[in-house]
Amino acid sequence: MPTQIEPALLTELRGRLRTARRVFVLTGAGVSAESGVPTFRGGGQSGVWKGMPFDAISSYRMLQSDLPALWEWFDYRRNLLRDLRPNPAHLTLAAWQEKFAHLCLATQNVDGLHTAAGSRDVHELHGNIWTARCTQCDARESLREETNVTGAAMGATDAATGARERPPVCRSCGNAMRPDVVLFGEMLPAGVFEQAAEGAAACDLCFVVGTSSLVYPAMRLPEIALEAGAYTVEINPEATPFSALCHAAIQGRAGEVLPQLDY
User: Fold this and answer.
1) Partner of 215 at 20 to 30 A CA spacing, among 26, 134, 164, 189?
2) What is the CATH code for 39-83+142-181?
3) Sign of the torsion formed by the C-alpha atoms of 70, 76, 80 and 81
């Protein structure tokens, strides 16, 4: 049965959305999971790939020790994402961009589904799986045009798939490229948190959507909004450590809850 919001709370939230001028939204893995994006968490086979735990294959140590294996893992992940589409949560947030004088959207997700839904200037705290970044000069290149990448050894360009060699070679300086995502053991990209924090500090309405509220520094953003006096709403299937701090906590799927808030 779809999530039903208590009528008084629904009226309250719609009223706040009508009068809000600055809105901040932080999204997490729960939003993308509703589109079919694997979380690679939660135990069982979901957290292991070729015998390696998710946090080991996705680590800075792997970047240093076995870059081809890291590419094979992220190519595998991209192939899982290739045919997935934005869900009603992504689409609702994209539509909000036209409703408010200022909307700041930050995400912990790397799948690019917010942008695919039409959101602009998304603060991708953990990077983007569809981009490669040079390990030396930081030049970036899109991987969107590649199809059916398997991670197997290949030449400079595979005519059948359009895939480049692994690791790709930077067209600017000739050095190896890496997936442009934040790995375990790495800091966030320079500037992205600070820009999102400005939006959080200035907002009058804050939404925390589809996140366990355990991942820092991302969770520092809604804390900043709360400290600045923003009315803060959590939307998540389960209660989190942040639930009790919010003005409202709705237990439900983002794709069911967010469309109901439209006025």
Assistant:
1) 134
2) 3.30.1600
3) positive
